[in-house]
Specification:
Length: 285
């Protein structure tokens, strides 16, 4: 809730006119509690999780030679009912684990100082904070994911996520509820280290979900804008981790490739990639 009654009061306090975005934010949030604004995150997660995989669902249902060129494991096919079953199971976990986690994590958000007031973060503040969140999460997620590949963690928890040896968009958050909580911790680390605005937090959670759905989509489209992000792993990179399955000691990182490179857990993948590229080139010649 903003500490101003009117736009004029806000402008007087900031000693300048509000920007268009700040005026919108004032009108939307001024009478809403910080807790209610934080709960928007759960709604965004649900909406984006439901809508973003839909183009991949359509591609899967319209499979043809043209579409198969972009399918990472072209022999694998998923029916509508397979994909809806995955969606239904994720929504069940969502209600059981992510929903309560979002609601009860509010004291942490309050304590670390995620702000809801004015001014809104500048474009550069937003960019640098999101970059820090991605880097911190990627590093923490790498190690937590790697730990989950030890026998106990894999058998009891992580094997659920690996039921999909050829992942689909809806399978991005398909996991044991304990894994959602363990890896969810990594998503909170960045905002804990560099607390920002609630809008930055929403955007962070949305972008992380967009990234997870793309890397689990099972498709590699050459026109994807993520191709221009340095050290970005992408769909083929994570698909390989699922393809190898439980014994996978490769490609643990969730977003970037640098952790696997530094700790030498991408050797198998790089070798396979080289072999695959040589075979493709020789068949084209
Ligand atoms: Zn794994
Ligand atoms: Zn995965």
């Amino acid at each position: 809730m903003l500490p101003y009654e009117t736009l004029q009061e806000a402008e007087f306090s900031l000693r300048r006119n509000l920007t268009f975005a700040e005026t919108l934010w004032f009108k939307y949030s001024s009478r809403k509690s910080d807790y209610f604004l934080y709960c928007h995150n759960t709604i965004f997660l649900f909406i984006f999780y439901t809508l973003l995989p839909l183009p991949y669902v359509v591609a899967e249902l319209m499979r043809s030679k043209k579409i198969d060129k972009f399918k990472i494991q072209p022999k694998m096919k998923n029916s509508l009912s397979d994909m809806l079953t995955c969606y239904r199971k994720v929504i069940q976990t969502f209600v059981l684990a992510i929903g309560p986690l979002q609601l009860f994590s509010y004291p942490v958000i309050e304590r670390i100082g995620i702000r809801t007031g004015l001014p809104l973060p500048s474009g550069s503040e937003l960019f640098w904070q999101l970059l820090v969140y991605f880097l911190v999460e990627d590093y923490a997620n790498y190690w937590l994911h790697r730990l989950l590949h030890f026998k106990w963690g894999y058998e009891k928890i992580h094997s659920v996520h690996h039921e999909y040896t050829a992942p689909i968009g809806f399978a991005a958050p398909y996991a044991h509820w304990a894994e959602i909580i363990i890896l969810g911790f990594a998503s909170f680390l960045g905002p804990m280290i560099v607390p920002g605005h609630m809008i930055t937090f929403w955007l962070w959670m949305i972008l992380r979900q967009v990234e997870a759905i793309e890397t689990h989509s099972g498709y590699d489209f050459p026109w994807s804008p993520t191709k221009y992000i340095p050290f970005y792993g992408g769909a083929i990179y994570h698909d390989y981790h699922h393809y190898v399955g439980g014994k996978s000691q490769s490609n643990f990182a969730s977003v970037f490739t640098y952790c696997d490179y530094i700790y030498g857990t991408d050797k198998g993948y790089r070798y396979q990639k080289e072999v695959f590229e040589k075979v493709t080139q020789s068949t084209l010649q």
